[in-house]
Amino acid sequence: MSCRWISRLLFFCFFFTSLTYAASTQKEDPIKIKYERNTIVVQNTSNKVVNLRDAKIQFNYYGRILKITNAQENIQGIHFQSQDLRQSGGNKVYTVTISTDKKNLLNPNASLKLKLVSDKKDVPHDFKFFTAPQPVNVTVSVQNKDWVETISVCNTSGASIPLKNIEFDFNYSKPMSNKIWGSPWAEWKLASQTGNQVVLIGGTPDTPALPSDPGCMNPLTIKFNASPSAPAPTGPFVFKAEMGNTPSVGNLHVSLASSPDGSLPNPSITIAGPNTNVQKAMTWGTSWDLTNLPVGSYTISGSTVSNGSQSYVATPVNAQVNSQQTTNANITYQPAPTAAVTVTLNNPPTAQVPLTLTGKNGTINQTVSNGTVLHLANDTYQVTSNIAGYNSVATPNPLVIPNATSLSISYTAINTGDAGSRKINFVNQCSFPVWFGFISGATPNKSGGETCATDADCYPNNTCVDRGAGGKHCFWTNPVPANNNFKLAPNGGVNSVVIPYTKLPNGATWSGAAAGRTNCTSAGCETADCGNGEGGCPAGRGFKQPATQAEFTFQTSATDFYDVSAVNGLNIPVAMTPVNTPVNSNDPYNCGAPGSTTPNTNIGACTWDLNPIYTEFNWVRAGGSACTSSSDCQSGSVCGLSVNPGKTPLLQKTCGKLIGYWNANEICGVQNNYGAPFNCQQQLPSPNNAYKMFQLLGCAPIPSCYQNGAQNNCCGCVNWDQEGVGVPPAPFTEQCVNSNNYWVSNVMPGLKWIKQACPSVYTYPYDDMSSTFVCRVMKDRNGTQVNSVDYTITFCPGGKTGGVSPS
User: Fold this and answer.
1) What pLDDT does residue 356 have?
2) Which residue(s) pair with 271 in the sheet?
3) 3-state class of 749 per DSSP?
4) Fewer CB under 10 Å: which end of the chain, C or N?
């Protein structure tokens, strides 16, 4: 696969003047239009100056307008035109244009009055106000790959850019192609090419706005076919859009001091302010620059870090970002106030034992002996000490500091006859309650067939489930906690289940998935519902999607297979970690921890900082008002897709609490006629012209690009390590046999934002090559060696909620 990078060109297009504002077309429109006494009154109701240069006023009128005159002297260059839309006596659409012969500024609370002279006594109606596209502050880069020239436009303006009426100007020495595409879909057209100067126009009413993106994570792309040897497009690049009032923006320079202790891990730094909440793992002694931030007050904070015996904290810093200025902020770490806790070990199997303390501010892993004194920062810790072949009980648990001064841990050997059973620990590090649940896989009956009449036809630890029209089938029995309580308290709630030793002829012990459900009542759960309210999931039932799932197949003697899946979207972050089984440094997928906020060998940590490229990827609670972007919503709500049973369409863009994230595959599965930006029913171009977009999103029935002999009409396959994602290269991950350019351009961007937030998560049907983990630890069971790995499933690992707020 050939790839040529044009030198990464960075250009900035600035607004012409700080006093020039285009009228907003958002919900709070500052331009109000009314008609009184043969006069059209255009009023600026905002407290900002509005530029009327090249503005248009459109309205319907039955009859013929003879002329429109300016009733004032302060506005110059009024012209009008009409478009005859009459059908058997219908209306005409008239457009009034305010020409470019002057900079026409409309002051706050001022009005423009246009006198209308016509042949009828009718009243104009359906007024619409449009501003001409204005230059917007963006960053541009150019790349040619596989004979496709890609211009990436990053929104560094500090505000969301509407894409309903846009223009892009640049220089190109070759004849410009008329076939132009990109993401999001904007119906780009070649308006003109004069010499080397190219003008493209685009935008549709359905094109989503481009969010502010100071980190350039999700650019708008403009693509056309071009030879790799052809000269690249060059600047000056000018991107124009119908912007609202230009926000004042400034810059923030954050410096992290050197580590106060050489053994400390790198901290995560969070910057929160107006329309901004970003997080980054910073290396000690480095800096972080954020440009074009909205003016306002920002809080810079850092995560608690620990060397095992001493925690360190950073005092949050408040910084005021001012217009066109750079504000400096310095973050330093100091030892956290601690309390001494003496550890007592009862019947420990070894002199030194592993100890894990999971608190709200982080996790401490330490090896302790009887009498060890720990110096712990104030927090509430869940205590675990996992040693193969032993159960442990800690008292008190949770350990509350500074109240507690001692910690006692007792160990009991496990009978070897219990080897082969599997214990799954659940830990909730979310700031809200979570109800864990299981869904189980189907199994053959005792005769090797598929159907059953009663439980007696199924193997032990299996049950016969009536699937209605699908008949009765055997399924694994879902495990239940000893206290029959599936609810995990926020900020550290724990529980566990035990899956008994079972051996099927196919070698399986149990297979299925676990997920965290939110906002559960006796009537059901808001996310990941499985049909039994706050209780366990009935066998044979699945989770209602989107739901993040820990999926696994436990085997009697062979290796286990497991992953964390977001193939159908996400509700909350999830991590799955084998207990007391170190990662194989020669194979990061051997006993690794998908979803973990701690980096595995060669696999990047999951920050769970989810930054969807489209507003439609936000999954919000239904019942809010319609929206086009989150700026339309009140504080605490975002704009996204909500499910509205009984309404048409089923999926609607509304304001609401963020309860999870969709992906395009799930959106088309729920509403198969959904339009832009996913275009589920769109016929694909050659060589996939036998399929529609929803089939490419689900990779069904299109074969994988990983298969031997795969052609360029295959589906899926990304060498993620070449896309800047923390996934190990070959030989740890299988590399693509072939590639489908249309999939790469139109499907992969809708997956990459998830993979960037968690490199180890499973994002699409063929992503198993970078997301499937294996593990095996053998123990003796009455003379037979059996696989006995236990696992911990953590919800919101490290307290990372992914931005969701289901409470």
Assistant:
1) 86
2) 278, 300
3) helix
4) N
